[in-house]
Task: inverse folding
């Protein structure tokens, strides 16, 4: 969906052509190849930093340039292997927030089976067993199964997103948005 008539984040090649005209002028992003052939991360980064998007997201004018990767964070091998299960257990114990964990069902990087295993390792009682949740499918497809969900005590939910890989919004934008909206609006999945 374009913001204020600007580029669409879901169509990076179109975004690249528009950005080439408006940002770079000559179609070169400085890497030596035309912008429309850039990877999606390049298009997303450029898109997120356009004045219209920054304004729509209420980004302060003095805020730094957005990037999806930074070397400013010092990652360590120990952090890489550290479990986040204790963090989730502590958050669940507070009963102060709801938690949604979701996984693209064709994610080859963090497979749904692995996510399900660690969610089940929390030992929470199910309040709603596995069931389909529904997505509008956008303007073209009508309502359809968006994935499957299970809900647990303490406001903890786990959902899959049908047909999505590791980057749910890039693979199944409408389904990801519908899942996010349902969660924010406290609607049952």
Result:
């Amino acid at each position: 969906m374009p913001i204020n008539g600007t580029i669409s984040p879901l169509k990076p090649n179109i975004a690249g052509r528009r950005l080439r005209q408006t940002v770079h002028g000559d179609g070169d992003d400085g890497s030596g190849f035309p912008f429309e052939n850039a990877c999606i991360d390049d298009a997303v980064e450029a898109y997120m930093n356009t004045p219209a998007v920054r304004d729509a997201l209420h980004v302060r004018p003095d805020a730094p340039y957005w990037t999806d990767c930074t070397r400013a964070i010092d990652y360590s091998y120990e952090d890489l292997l550290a479990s986040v299960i204790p963090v989730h257990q502590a958050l669940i114990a507070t009963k102060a927030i709801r938690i949604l964990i979701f996984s693209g069902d064709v994610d080859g990087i963090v497979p749904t089976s692995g996510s399900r295993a660690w969610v089940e390792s929390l030992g929470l009682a199910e309040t709603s067993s596995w069931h389909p949740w529904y997505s509008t499918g956008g303007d073209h497809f009508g309502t359809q199964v968006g994935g499957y969900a299970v809900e647990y005590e303490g406001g903890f939910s786990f959902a899959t997103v049908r047909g999505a890989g590791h980057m749910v919004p890039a693979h199944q934008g409408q389904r990801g948005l519908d899942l996010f909206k349902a969660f924010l609006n406290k609607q049952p999945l």
